[in-house]
Amino acid sequence: MQNLLKERGEPAYRADQLWQWIWQKKAGDFQEMTNISKALRSSLQQEFVLQRPAVVQKKESIDGTVKLLLGLNDGFFIETVIIPEKDYYTQCISTQVGCPMGCVFCSTGCMGFKRNLTPGEIASQVLVACRHLEDTGLDSTRLTNVVLMGMGEPLLNWDAVKKAMYMMTDSLGLGISRRRLTLSTVGVRDRLQEFGSSRLGMLAVSLHAPDQDLRRRLMPGAATWDIKDLVRALEQYPLAPRERITIEYVLLKDINDSPAQARALVRLLSRVKCKVNLLAYNPGEQEGYQPPQEKTILTFEEVLRSKGLTVTLRKSKGQDISAACGQLIADS
Ligand code: SF4
């Protein structure tokens, strides 16, 4: 944008103004940009479009979670989910159309990989969510937390994700605190360290198994990186004094939910500065997987806690509208 405006003989700060209008003030039209001359606005309007993914369908859960099906320029669809917390909203955004990782319990994984999203398609999901909140009379300034945990593996689209995270955290952009922006990955060799060095957000790692054999069965795409090497990389991951990595573990009945597996998980993570997020499986379109009984979940949790791990048992939201973890699917 700086180059583009320079070619038109505009001062350097004009790019900041334009950037601010698009991301911070969420302008939907060049004509709203009142501190930019009419002549420049008209010339921009003739050459460019300000475009966001279009809301094709909205579904609202009884718990207030909203899932938006978004249409992209080339006919593909993605999903984004707005989750109401006590006094703020968390938005879960997508980074790819589909996902090549093929995790067997995940609806997105089962639809396969279609294409990467562009930086604009990733970050503008937040603009779309803010507009949805405003249109329904809700306060969009409360959308303070964003997780890159929707469709896709963000580190396989790292170049675009990096730019999108910059758009989201920049103080003239969406202004989201990096401590409230979380990238969730299965762990991609090399890119994990790059993400750590970028300091653009917090890290969550989907582990879902305490050993390589089971992880290979559940997450074939992720298992090209041996679980022990992945954990070694997590031990060396750069963290500020009070930061911790979030380990995501979806509990599947009779598959990864036994007390022995909980103990194996404790041993595996013994040198990682982390907290563990446990989540019972959300039934999707895949057959053969069930959530464990509540008693089994509590026993698993207790084993981790008793060995000194910080554990949260995440309540699943939006299950009734297939908006919960692992349930996102959008066929074009
Ligand atoms: S769980 Fe995540 S990484 Fe695995 S297939 Fe689904 S979207 Fe991809």
Straight-line N-to-C gap: 32 Å
Instruction: Please estimate the helix content.
Output: 25-40%
Name given to the CATH homologous superfamily of the largest domain: Aldolase class I
The biggest sheet amounts to: 10 strands, mixed
Q: Element order, helices and strands?
A: HHHEEEEEHEHEHEHEHHEHEHE
Our Rg estimate from Cα atoms comes to 21 Å
- Ligand types: iron/sulfur cluster
Task: List low-confidence stretches.
Answer: none
> How many domains?
2
Describe what this molecule looks like in 3D:
Helix 6 links the parallel strand 7 and strand 8. The protein folds into two domains: 46 residues, DNA polymerase, domain 1 (Orthogonal Bundle); 268 residues, Aldolase class I (TIM Barrel), CATH 3.20.20.70. Strands 1-2-3-4-7-8-9-10-11-12 form a ten-stranded mixed sheet, with helices on one face. It has a two-stranded antiparallel sheet with strand order 5-6. With 332 residues, the chain is an alpha/beta fold. It is 33% helix and 20% strand. The site of iron/sulfur cluster has 12 residues, from helix 4. Keywords: 4Fe-4S, Cytoplasm, Disulfide bond, Iron, Iron-sulfur, Metal-binding, Methyltransferase, rRNA processing, S-adenosyl-L-methionine, Transferase, tRNA processing. Its main location: cytoplasm. Its EC number is 2.1.1.192. Specifically methylates position 2 of adenine 2503 in 23S rRNA and position 2 of adenine 37 in tRNAs. It is an enzyme of class 2 (transferase).
